[in-house]
Amino acid sequence: MTARAPSLVQANSAGRALNLLGDRWILMILYLAFQRVRRFDAFQSRIGLARSLLIDRLRRLQTAGVLEKARYQERPIREEYHLTDMGRDLFTVTLMIIRWEARWFDGAAHPVHRLKHACGKPFTPELRCGHCRALVDPRDVYVEDGPGVGTDPASPPRAQRRSIVASGTLTDGNPMLDRALQVLGDRWTARLIAQAFMGLRRFKDFQGALGVAPNILSDRLARLLTLGVLRRERYQLRPERFEYRLTETGRDLYPLIVELNRWGDRWLDGGKGPPLITFHRPCGHRLEPRITCDQCGDLADLESVGPKEPTP
Ligand SMILES: [Zn+2]
Ligand SMILES: [Zn+2]
User: Fold this and answer.
1) Among 137, 204, 221, 256, which residue's CB has the most CB atoms within a 10 Å radius?
2) pLDDT confidence band for 9 (50 / 70 / 90)
3) C-alpha 300 to ligand 2 mean position (Å)
4) Any idea which ligand is nearest the CA of 133?
5) Average pLDDT for residues 281-294, to the nearest whole number?
6) What is the mean pLDDT of the chain?
7) For residue 107, what pLDDT is reported?
8) CA of 256 to the centre of ligand 2 (A)
9) Which domains are delineated in the chain?
10) Which residues have a beta carbon within 5 Å of ligand 1, which is an ion?
């Protein structure tokens, strides 16, 4: 018998965002939605997902308020999916996914990694502090309880089943996001990384913070070691014990976690305010992320980066 997982975990906005987004199909749908894919058949042909699964994911995104249906033909009735304001606000999250993938996994091989900014140059998006405008290093921040501090239910069991199904085949035609989807497309993996940024390193600590079964935790830790996001370090000889630390590649996921957190704070706080508040130590102000172009320094957002060729 394994120990029963705790039913509550400490609330954090990145975790809440991942409860919704930490699914490989959902991330692909969003990625395509930002390429202006809008119709069911277009999603289906680009993702190659079974009809029932695609319907399920689109419905989830509608229920969450990320997508909405709009009618584009009356007879017969035909509808397409549009991003809501809440959905469009995920643009910088997808930008951070592309950024990470392009920086660490041979971006040059995949044209889709070449982001172009309104200044006319190919660029890499950067995370800066909205107050002092300095680049943000994960070692330069600290976190305090916010007005919405509390607990959330641990992830429901269905997430575990879904995670196990979601391996491999989706990205065969879309290899550009493969690594990022391995990390983010599984909510345990992604939450694990979020906790690593909170300073957790040991098996028991991850287990307690995530409310995850030990076998699932072992599996996800192994995956992250293979991906080069975590490394293992021995901290005790007898009995031999290891802790898990972020590698340089792993630490570079920080801008993505910050963006997930920002989005969760804004849209999923249940009216209570953020559960946690991040401060930028060098300037002492609350960290308001600002995503900029590394070439010209201006904001990198949907308007300045948007897709060049709309897909009907
Ligand atoms: Zn600052
Ligand atoms: Zn620029």
Assistant:
1) 256
2) confident
3) 7
4) 1
5) 97
6) 87
7) 54
8) 20
9) 8-254 (1.10.10.10)
10) 129, 131-132, 280, 283
CB 171 within 8 A of CB 181: yes
Pairs from 108-113 (Cβ < 8 Å, separation ≥ 24):
110/175, 110/176, 112/176, 113/176
Asked if 166 and 100 touch (Cβ cutoff 8 Å), the reply is: no
Structure tokens at 26: 């959902």
Contact 119, 295 (CB under 8 A): yes
What gap in Å lies between CA 301 and CA 34, rounded to an integer? 12
Residue 75 tokens read as 């007879």
Instruction: Give the pLDDT confidence score for residue 183 in this predicted structure.
Output: 86
